[in-house]
Structures are given as C-alpha cells and as structure tokens.
Amino acid sequence: MTEKLVIVGNGMAPGRMLEHLFEAAPGRYEVTIFNAEPRVNYDRIMLSPVLSGEKTFEEIVIHGDGWYIANGVTLYKGHKIVAIDRAGKTVTSDKGVTESYDKLVVATGSVPFIIPVPGNDLPGVITYRDLDDVNAMLLAAQSRDKAVVIGGGLLGLEAAAGLKERDMDVTVLHVMPTLMERQLDPAAGYLLQKAVEARGIEVITKADTRAILGDKRVTGVELKDGRVIPASLVVMAVGIRPNAMLAKEAGLEVGRGIVVNPSMQTSDPSVLALGECVEVEARTYGLVAPLYQMARVAAENLAGTPEARFVHSETPTKLKVTGIDLYSVGDFADGDDREEIVLRDASAGIYKRVVLKDDRIIGAVLFGETADGAWLADLQKKQTDISAMRDTLIFGQALQGGTSADPLAAVAALADDAEICGCNGVCKGTIVSAITSKGLTNLDGVRAHTKASASCGNCTPLVEKLMTLTLGDSYNPAAVQPICPCTTLGHDEVRRLIKAKQLKTIPAVMQELEWKTSCGCAKCRPALNYYLVADWPNEYADDYQSRFINERVHANIQKDGTYSIVPRMWGGVTSARELRAIADVVDKFAIPTVKVTGGQRIDMLGIKKEDLPAVWADLGQAGFVSGHAYAKGLRTVKTCVGTDWCRFGTQDSTGLGIRIEKFMWGSWTPAKVKMAVSGCPRNCAEATCKDVGVICVDSGFEIHFAGAAGLDIKGTEVLGLVKTEDEALEVIVALVQMYREQARYLERIYKWAKRIGTDEIRKQVLENTARRQEYFDRFVFSQKFAQIDPWAERVSGKDKHEFRPMAAVPFPQAAE
Amino acid sequence: MGWFEIGALEDIPQRGARCVETPQGRIGVFRTADDKVYAVEDHCPHRGGPLSQGIVHGASVTCPLHNWVFSLETGKALGADEGALKTIPVRLVGGRISLALDVALAAAE
C-alpha cells in the first residue's frame, strides 16, 4: 500500500530528494508538494545568470511540469502552508487545501535578513532570493537608474554584477573593511574589490547603513557617517536565516533552524526536514553541496534505510560573476600554530594562499587563477601530508611529481574519490565509470547520468577533461572544424593567419597555408575571397571566379536559370516616379512576376540573364541602384514612418533608416545583414528579430542586435541605449565592422555573437569609445572601395562575358 | 560528328565558364586554372541547374543551384551524389576552341 508523503517547499533540496527517492523506492509514496512560489522547481544558484541576461528562466528549470506528471506528483503552485496539525497528521494551505500525510518533509528554506533601519519597507527595497526578486530587479533596471546593493558577500556581488549588466549604475555597500570577508582573506578581498570596481561598480566598505530614504518609494541610502547615496532600487543581500516559523508553530524543536538529527529526522518521527531551514549538529547551511547531501540522506531515510548520516564537510566557495575567478575553502585565519604559502602576481592579478597546520592544508584562497582549487580542496579534505611537495605546492598540481604542464595531467592525477562537481557531490570515479559503463560520448550525457556540471556549471572544463581522458581522441569538444576538405585549418585560424602573414591573394593563402588542392573548392574559395576583401579593402583585387553566381552577376538565380533583381528603396520609401519606372521595365522586358519583399522593396522575377544589363540601364535612368538582395552584405534597412506621420513615433525612424542604409550599402559581410529601425517600442518595423535593429524611445535609440527570423527564430539582444542619431550610427557601424573582421564566412550575427559573447561585443563597440572609433574608421575606409553601384558598372560594360553566350551554333544550314 | 569553332581561349575567364547555344541544347565550356578546356551539357541531372554559372575548381564544377559537384573530365557526379553529365569533345588549337557536335553530321549533309 502506498503511503502519503507531503512536502512543504519545492526548492532544490526536496527536488533532489525526490529524484533519489523515486530511484530507491519507486511507487512507495504518493507525493504531494506545496510550493509557496507559483512555479516548478528551478536552479536557484543560476538566478544570477538570469539577472545578468546570460540565461533565461526556462534554461534553469530543473523539473518541468512534465516531470511532476510523469512521477505522479501533485504540485500545488502558489500554495503556502499555514498550519501543520501533527496530531491529525494534516497540513493546510493559505488557499484552504488540507492534505493528510503519513510522512511529512519540511523544506521551507530561508528568508533574507532585512536590516532593521528606518525605510526598509519602502517600495523599491527588495531582497534577492527567488525569481520574483529577479523579476522585480529586471523591471527596476529598465530605468537604467541608480541601484544600491547592501551587502558585499557572494549574493550581493552577484546581484551587483547582474544589475550592472542591465545598465544600472551600481554601488555596493559593505559593512566590513573587505568584501566577502567570511570566505576571503583581506588580500583576496582587496583584489576582488579591484576587479568589481573595474567593471564600473562602485564599492564602499565600512559602510554602515543608518536609514533608507524616500517618501512614497526609495530615493537613496543614508550612511552613519552622513553620506547619502541616491538610488531608485535598493537590494538587500546581507544574509539569510532559516525559515523555521511554520515548524516552530507546529511545536517542533527549533533552535536557529529546525533541529534535525544526522538522518534529517525532526523531533517528530513522522516529520523530516532538510535544506536551508534546518540546523544539524548546531550548524546551518546555505550552499547547495551540503543541501544535496541532506537530500540523499533524507531520501534513504524515507526509502526505509535510515542508516545514512549527514556529515559536515567544508564547502568551497566560488563566485559566479563572469570574468572574476575566485575559490576558497576551509579555514584561513592567521594563527601561531599555522604557516602559510603565498604567491602573488600583481600584473596578472593572481593571488594564491595556502594555510598549513602540521604539514596539512587547512584552508586555501585562490584569486585570478583557480584551476588548482579542486586539487587543494581534495588535499584539505583528506588531510594529506604535503611535506614532500611543500616547495612547489603553491604552483599547483601540474608541477608535482615532475609531470609536465599538460592540462590533462592534473585531472589524470586526481584520485577516484576526488570531488569534481561540488554542487552535486560527484567524484571523479563516478563520472569515469558512467562514461564507460553507459557509453556516454557527450557532455549532456554525462550531465544526465551523473548530474556533474548540471548545476552551476563551473566544473564543466574539468568534466570535459575527464571525458577526454576517458574517451581519448574520440572526444574532442573544441575540435576545430576545417573550412573544407582542402585544408586542416578552421575559419578562425585562416583569418588570423591572413592578417599575421599579410596574405593578400587567394593563391598566396593556399600556398602559405598549405592547401591540399590546387585551387580550392566552392566552399573555401568564396570564404577566402571574403576574408581578403574584408581585410585588405584597398589592396585585394576581388576574385569574381571565387564568388557564387549571384554575387558574380548581381542578381538572384532562380530554379529555371532565370534571375530576379531587387533595386534599392532606401528605408523602404518610394515614389510615383520610381514605381512608374519599375512598371515600364516590367512591361518592356515582359517580366513575369513582380513581388513585394519582406524587406520593404520590390522584386522582379524571371528575367533572362541576357536582359539583365538592359534592365539595369533603364532602372539606373530612374535613379535606382542595386539592392544587393543577392549579397552576403548589407541587404535592407526596414523602417516605420516614425515622427513623420505616426502619432506614437518618438524619433525620425525613417530618416535614421535611410541614413544607415546610405552609409552602409555596398559593404560585404560574412553573411547577409538585415536591419530595421522602429520609431517606438510598438516596433512596427520588427527590429527585434533583425541582425541589427533600432528601437527609438523618447530618450534616444535602443540598439539591438543578434536577432534571427529564418532557420532559427531568436529575439535580439540589447546592445545599449545611445542618446543621439550620430552615436547610433557610429555604434551600428562599429558593430558591423567588428562582425566583418571576426566572424566566419556564412556565420550570421546571432551565431557570431553567441560565440564571442554579447558582453564582449558591448564592451568593444559601446563602452570602449576609442575601440569603437577604430572600427568605425576602418569601415569608412573600406567603403571607399565598396560603394560602387555594380549595376551601373555592368551597364557600362564590365564583365560582358557573364551576360551572353560565348557562341551560338545554329541549326544545320548555318554550320561551318 | 563535326568540329565547330566557338571562340578563343581568352573569351573564358580562368576558373570560369561560358555557355554555347547549340541545336542539341546549351553546352557549358569550362577553362581551368591551368588552361585546360572542357565542355559538358549545361544542365545538371539533379534539378537542371546551369553548370556554366557554377564555381570552377580544379577540373570540377559545383552547380549553382544545389551544390552538386561534377568532374569535368568524366562528367560524373563526385562525392555522395549520383548522376552524370554528357561530356562533349573539345579541341584547342592555336588558342581557338572547337567542339565536336552531333549536329555536325546533319550539317554535313
């Protein structure tokens, strides 16, 4: 007979407990979960990447709705349990649902600590615990105004970095003299502060908050020394405390948290508790690794094997802010009986400190270079005598035992029980045996079977190295794809070598880079031709024989061998005169189909190749130039009517679109580039699915990029907001030039951006104005050689041979 | 079968092609990087693409419509695709190109 298991709370700990339970005792319990949050179980560690925009909520869901259905779990979303009746063995939710249980698991988590100062309940003061908090911060961040984060610990710094990514002006207030003082020594805290400040986040230490100011909503924070920091958003991240209220009211034994024994049993034998809400052997926990250990113990207890025991161990700390590497484990306070080994490299921003007692590691702090963290933590955990390697300990594992600096050697040298994934407590042996016994060949497989690297992802490089070690050459995650079978080199290497070796012709590239074929193929030649055009605009002679037919004849080949052509209509604006000219051409050459394109212009289809120059001559008379509808280059800039006509328009979107198109037409790019400018956030020009888009707002121009609406559908990323039209043009041009210089041939902007990282692009073309100017200037230079109308050129006789047969052999009577 | 002169080597760009209209259909005439000349029917057996508009590499051409690759020497499709083009005999004498065409038989009558 199935027993009834009720769980209060749906965080990561009970979620993991259920996974273990369903594996150990399938079908034993009928499970009901009450979740105060109106959603499924998600990875709370990953809220910071959601805040910064690196991930979406969907990406951090652990158990989707389907999981609950598949496992027969009843999930009450948005139901907060308000009472436990231990005598009657029932729980009741705030929405009035009462459920009886045989076993109850309390996993109410923690509540953020709110500092007791005046104004701490003003609108605009929020904590950082769940998705609702993140959503509130994202909403506030739209103002791009000032934010204050109170608390310079792990959570506070992640919140600050995320808000900065969202373009807020961020100040961190920390009451202690150095940041993260519980996990870092002062030296590392200092380096951390420098790194945080280098991202444009202001840090004030020894900042004691006196009051939060504001009338109807928050306007600033006042410190005890009288300073006032203005802010429209205040995030409180000063710590958490176990949420034990419900348990206390139910009469369970409660200290700082709900008191449980090492098998997660509360003072009531029918009630278990786990997670941040519990106190086990006088300790409370807030990091995921011990919570997952509790989950395993609780599951075994419920499955009827209550021998499992929770054992305390030091959990290493890592900061999840991209670009800041820090790692700390154990105890690193100074003491007479302790020795320390320190390594500093000021220019590289590296600091490493290992604290020893009786030739054993008791603590370690690494900043800037954290690859040896797992190894040191393992030595610490096992209390290994390190006297033999003391001299070289600080230089890391690679230097021990005379092994080379081979990055795999360090991983190979790890013991089988060395922990690889801290979040999920997965050790090396488990991963290796899963790879071999389950025949796993990719990272996703390892994640699915072992959970390693499935939470915060910091150990992914380690897991990948393990896979390389185990699978040998058959696993090569970063394998460079050669451009084509003519070479072993990938696009990036070829681009780099073209610049480095000053290669300026296709034969030179093939000779110097040891091409395996005499003159390449239809895959590599167009790529090389583009790279050379882009890198040496004034020196390289475009090789038309290495271009695809469309770019060679400046029209689009159709399935029957006829062509279509699209003249430019700047910004999608046309006139009666232009339309008349098109109508005349259509009549004169009996063009069978005329169609309006998605890019706001007119396509004429079914033109015989021989007729193309004559068609272009007539169109040229009316002022038309090529629309490059065939090119890996700038296609269209779609616009709406903006302030010219629209009652909602905030800027002259049509004017800006035309300006961009006139500035950028004719440029060759790695793949096609489609743009749009919308005059207001209603976005009638659909700018948010373009390679580059602009959304005009009252305060300026929001620049978007990396959208797609073809094979893939993807909304754009926001690059940033600029105030003037000139600046908008400059940023867009710089962005496209960066793409021209870095992307692989046929790689659209969204794929390139995914590879390079939105942050890096933003840094280079928005934040670093000097860099932006350089890109802009290089684009302008290159346009000198590119802005020549190819249709006009061909009307005046260029490439005649392309447009007519070489000869016609007539029927018999005319032969010879 | 008879030889028909169609023009000069210089009329075709290196690594390029031109087409010739004949009573037996359109023929693509190809010039390689090392000045060898080949002629094949200008009609891809896959979907009828005009091969004379393709990219010429080595002694092969890639069809502009769906990237089938053909040997100009044998007319056979290379790689995973199966199919063949009819090849036409070519003569290059003193920089002038001639094709051997079936139509010549009729013309000789």
TrEMBL record, chain B:
Keyword Ion transport: no
GO BP terms: nitrate assimilation
Highest taxon listed in the record's lineage: Bacteria
One Gene Ontology MF term: metal ion binding
Classification via Pfam families: Rieske_2 (PF13806)
Keywords noted in UniProt: 2Fe-2S, Iron, Iron-sulfur, Metal-binding, Nitrate assimilation, Oxidoreductase
Family matches, as InterPro entries: Rieske-like_NirD, Rieske_2Fe-2S, Rieske_2Fe-2S_sf
Protein name: Putative nitrite reductase, small subunit
Organism: Afipia carboxidovorans (strain ATCC 49405 / DSM 1227 / KCTC 32145 / OM5)
